[in-house]
Amino acid sequence: MLTLKYIAENSEDVLKRLKKKHFDGEQLISKVLELNAERKKTQYDADSIAAEINKISKEIGSLYKQGKTSEADALKQKTIELKESIKLLEEKQNQIEATLNEILVQIPNLPHESVPEGKLAEDNHVERTGGKIPSLPADALPHWDLAKKYDIIDFETGVKITGAGFPLYKGKCAQLQRALINFFLDNARAAGYMEVQPPYVVNEASAYATGQLPDKECQMYFCQEDNLYLIPTAEVPVTNIYRGMILNENELPIKNVAYSACFRREAGSYGKDVRGLNRLHQFDKVEIVQIQLPEKSYDTLYEMVHYVEGLAEKLELPWRTLRLCGGDMSFTSALTFDIEVYSAAQQRWLEVSSVSNFESYQANRLKCRYRSSDKKIELCHTLNGSALALPRIVAALLENNQTPEGIRIPKALIPYTGFELIN
RNA sequence: GGAGAGGUGCUCGAGUGGUUGAAGAGGUACGCCUGGAAAGCGUAUAUACUCCUAAAGGGUAUCACGGGUUCGAAUCCCGUCCUCUCCGCCA
C-alpha cells in the first residue's frame, strides 16, 4: 500500500495519478487526510497523559521507599482518573488506525509516468516484437487436438482425478514440462538469480503482505483446518522471505528464482479463452523476484523484461512485449510489461509473463526496508516476473512446431528433453 | 497425537513487580595506538509513531502476539501463535 506519509504530503499528486488507473480516489483520500489529522491529535493527547502517569508512578515508587504511604495513596487516586481518560483515547486511536488501514489497502499503487493512458487491453502499447510467426497449413491443429493425437495431455483423466483445469501430462509432454522447468531455472541462475524452493502453502500474514488478502481471497484455494492458502504464484512465498527485514544497502539487489506449482481458483472465468492449456487451476511457473534500491528499480525492470524476451527468443517462439495501460494494470503495480507468445493454430497471443515494478507499494506492506550508507532506513522496491509460465508456452510450442512427422522441439531445449520430436 | 520446557536487542545471554530500552559478552562501525596490521583502549550501535519550521532535543509504545491484575509489568494471571526435548506414528 501507499505510505500514509506520502499521501498526506502529496495528496494532489496521488489523486492526479490515480486517474490514470481510472480510480476515483477523491473520497478515500480526503478521508485519509481527515483521519490522519485526527490520529495525530489523539496520539499526542494520549501520549501526554501516558507521560503524566509514568511520572506519577515513579513518584509513588520513591514515596513508598521513603515510607510516605499517605502521600503515595493520594497520588494513586490521581492516576486512576488519568487512566480512564487515556483508555478512551486509546480506543479511539485504535479505531482510527484500523479504519485508516482499511482505506489504505483500497488505494491502488500509483502508475509510473511512462504508463500509457487507456482503459482496456487494446490500449496497451506494443513495445517490441521478435521471432517469426510460422505459416501453418490450413489443417493445423490447436494444441488440445494435438494433445489427443499424440496422447500427451489427458484432460479427461484430470477431470476424473480432480476436476476441470487440472490436466494430466503424459509421456513426452510430462518430460517436456520438466525440461522447461530446468531450462528456465538454469537460465535464471546464469543471469545471477539464486534458486529457492519455497513452500507452496502460506499463512494469512504472507498472503496479506503480498496483497492477495484481504481482497482476492476467492482466487486462492484455502485449507480451512489449518488456515493456510495454496499459493497462486511463487511470488507470494519468495517475496515473503523478506517480510519484516531491514537489509543492508550492499545486500541489494536480491535476485531470487523459484519454480513452483501455482494454484488458482479462477472463479468466474469460462468460455473459449479457457480451452485446453489456456487457463488452468494448477500450473507450473518459474518466477523471478528482485528486491532493489529505489533509484535502480526501473533499470532492473527493463533488465528483467529483456531477460524474459530472451527466453522466448531461445525457444524460437514469436513474441511481443506490451507496456500495459493504466486501466489494464494490476492494482499493486507501478509499471507492468506483459510478454506474449503467438500460438499459431489458435491464432492468438498468449500472455506468458508479466513483469512488474511495485516500487515501495508491496514493500510497505511487507515492511521490507534497507539501511542506506548514510544510515537512513527506507522501503525497498520489489519487482517480479514470470520466467516463464509453462502451460501457454507448451501450447505455443505444440501448435507452432507441428509438422507431418511430429512436434519439433526447439534446439535450446533438446539437451533438456533428450528427444527432438514428439510423435 | 501424548507429556514437558521455553520464546528478551544483530547474536549469545542476565534479569521474577519500581529511572530496565533493557546488565554482561560477542559482532559491527568510527577514533586512538601502529611504518602497516593484530592485540589493546575509547566511543557508538533498535524500530514505529509523535512534538518542535528544521536541526538539536523531548514524549509515547515495543522484551513472540492479544488481553487482564497493579499507581507501576520483560517480570504476576488468562488466551493465541511459534520453537525445542521425550514418547508414539510416518515419507
Describe this structure in words.
With 423 residues, the chain is an alpha+beta fold. The protein has two domains: 4-104, Orthogonal Bundle (Helix Hairpins); 121-422, 2-Layer Sandwich (BirA Bifunctional Protein, domain 2), CATH 3.30.930. It is 42% helix and 21% strand. The chain has helices at 4-9, 11-20, 26-65, 69-104, 143-149, 155-161, 171-190, 204-209, 235-240, 297-314, 361-366, 390-400, 414-417, and strands at residues 125-130, 153-154, 168-169, 194-195, 201-202, 222-223, 228-230, 246-248, 254-263, 282-292, 319-323, 335-343, 348-357, 369-371, 377-379, 381-389, 402-403, 406-408, 421-422. An eight-stranded mixed sheet has the order 1-11-12-13-16-10-9-4. α5 crosses α12. The radius of gyration is 27 Å and the shape is elongated. The structure holds one RNA strand of 91 nucleotides.
Task: Please outline the helices and strands.
Layout lengths: L3 H6 L1 H10 L5 H40 L3 H36 L20 E6 L12 H7 L3 E2 H7 L6 E2 L1 H20 L3 E2 L5 E2 L1 H6 L12 E2 L4 E3 L4 H6 L5 E3 L5 E10 L18 E11 L4 H18 L4 E5 L11 E9 L4 E10 L3 H6 L2 E3 L5 E3 L1 E9 H11 L1 E2 L2 E3 L5 H4 L3 E2 L1
Parallel strand pairs: 4-9, 8-14
Antiparallel strand pairs: 1-11, 2-3, 5-7, 6-7, 9-10, 10-16, 11-12, 12-13, 13-16, 14-15, 17-18, 18-19
Helix pairs in contact: 3-4, 5-12
This protein binds one RNA strand of 91 nucleotides through helix 3 and helix 4.
